[in-house]
Amino acid sequence: MMGGEMMGHGHGKMGHGMMGHSMAMQIIFSLMDADGDGKLTLQEWQTAHERIFKEMDTDHDGTVTLEEMEAFMHGH
Question: Distance (Å, rounded) from C-alpha 17 to C-alpha 52?
Answer without folding.
Answer: 25
